[in-house]
Amino acid sequence: MKLSTRDRLGDILSYAFMALMFVFFSWPLIWLLSMALRTRKEVFLGVSRLIPKYPTLDNFVAVLTSSQFPHYLINALKLSCLSAIGCLIIAAPAAYAFSRFEFKGKSAWMLGILAFQMISPLVIMVPLYRYMSRLGLIDSHFGTIMVYIALGVPMVTWLLKGFMDGIPRSLDEAALIDGCNRLSVFVRIILPLSTPGVASAFIITVIAGWSQFLVPFLLITKDSLVPIGVGIFQYAGTQNDSSIQVLAAACLISVVPAIIAFLALQRLILSAMTAGAVKG
Amino acid sequence: MSARAVRPKLPFLWATGRHNRVPSPYPWLMPVILVMGLFYLYPVVDVFRYAFTDLTLLGGEGHYTLSTFGNVLMRPELLQILWVTFVFTAGSVLGQQVIGLAMALVVVRSEKRHLFGTTILRTTALIAWVVPGIAGGIIWKMLFNEAPFGGLNSLLRLLGMAPVQWLSDPDVVMWSVVLSNVWRGTAFSMVVMYAALKAIDPSLYEAAEVDGASARQKLFFVTLPQLRPAILVNMILITIQTLNTFDAIISLTGGGPGRATEVLSLYTFNVVFRNYDLAAGSVLSILMLVISLGLALVYAAFLPKDEKA
């Protein structure tokens, strides 16, 4: 095939656009990394030391050996993993029912669940804060996890339902004929076959939990119980220009776990993400 | 339904076992119903109740009153807040949609031509999308740092341009916030548009080619009309997302300078948790609900009817 001038021009424009976009999306992260690796002196040299002359890991050491930061990370891990497990336990049976049963008002139920996603977490936090303080669940990880679960359930239900739709119904029917009841069909056949869907739902919920700010910011006041999202916000509030390199290192540490989790399952997460939007 | 109908023996077998009844879905739905009822429905109902009281977070039972509604909606700063919210939302949604679509188009074209770099670009954009809102705000605050060594100003100086007061100039700050939000959000639109582009029936392009359509004609008469439903759904999703954005702004500007970037969600937060005015915050929450619902309905009206299902 001969390359026409038109095609070649199009290629050049495509490359130019992609390069521009690449710079736009990567620059903030490159800058963050550059700052995190600098000594205090080099911070003030701006972009001319994008690649630091005297790179150092001291900032990371300072963050990881500080008294609060390891707590922030462990709290965030605990909150996001437990809430993701809770989400799956609550959403999976509903997803099975939506995928396999025909019942009155099914699509209304499904849309109703999705509609909750439109509601800003801030709206429900206004009364929830009041309930939680009455119930003595302020500064409790349990209360926070319950709210995380509620925030995650709609999406997880839809994701799992979509995944289970792809498992042939004939498997259910064969098992039912062999004398399984619905529950054992669900536990022994559908759940094991849904592992990829469950895994991507789990990772998506963990990433969402890791990014949570509003809920723990309101429900947790004790510094030792705070997860990373709140911890880094409060930490940033106490920093100034002379310690910007430490803040950059802290920020990088808070971002990297989410990025790694995402990259590990990128393909699964992307298909899950787009399924809802494209099918409508 | 249909799977059972085509197997003549199944109904008989089904009728013999304890599975003959159509299973009730409600035991399966119960956990979801409980959690959503307790943590969403009940609070939302309570928000409507609080809006007719004078409750505060400082304790006390409060009294029922109709005046909170009027007082909040007549507040002089509310108009400014709504305008800021509008500019932020419209800017972010348009930016994300246009750039996301452009990226998807270029990536699809480049993949067809086996150009290098599409995966790297897609992954980089998605990494920005995964960055938590608070961290995103902190990262952009470093970039927007107005000292000579700031991430953008030192770049501008290198290019011989004047520094910009990214965060302290009230006329500029909104665009800085929109820029940071577009950076974080565009990947989602790109992925949705990419999937929608891939779903277009290739025979449409073949037919267009037979008719001698130019690349531009193919874009305007095949691609864009085919993308319409996906674009609308995507716009609904990102509009609601943007309206609810709060963490990325609180860590970038805190709503300032003055009230230049105080969007409705941040304002609601401040009213409830800084001024402890639960009743007023509830009225503002209802306003947020009404706005998202209204926008969703407006977009939905543009969806082609047969493709809704």
What do you see in this structure?
Chain A has 280 residues and is mostly helical. Chain A folds into two domains: 52 residues, no CATH class; 216 residues, Orthogonal Bundle (MetI-like fold), CATH 1.10.3720. In chain A, 76% of the residues lie in helices and 0% in strands. The longest helix of chain A has 32 residues. The two termini of chain A are 39 Å apart. Chain B has 309 residues and is an all-alpha fold. Chain B has a domain of 206 residues: Orthogonal Bundle (MetI-like fold). Helices cover 71% and strands 0% of the residues of chain B. The longest helix of chain B has 37 residues. The interface between A and B is large, with 98 and 112 residues.
Which descriptors apply to this entry?
heterodimer; A: 280 residues; MetI-like fold; 14 helices; 0% strand; globular; B: 309 residues; mainly alpha; disordered N terminus
The number of strands of chain B is 0
The CATH class of the largest domain in chain A is identified as Mainly Alpha
Q: Which chains have the largest interface?
A: A-B, 98 and 112 residues
| Helical amount of chain B | over 70%
β-strand percent of chain B reads: under 5%
Distance between the termini of chain A: 39 Å
Which oligomeric form is depicted?
heterodimer
Summed up, the domain count of chain A is 2
Largest sheet of chain B: none
The helicity of chain A comes to over 70%
Q: Give the biggest sheet of chain A.
A: none
Morphology of chain A: globular
Overall pLDDT level of chain A: 86
Helix tally of chain B?
14
* Uncertain runs of chain A: none
Distance between the termini of chain B: 19 Å
Predict the CATH topology of the largest domain in chain A.
MetI-like fold
In short:
The complex is a heterodimer of chains A (280) and B (309). Chain A is built from 14 helices and no strands.
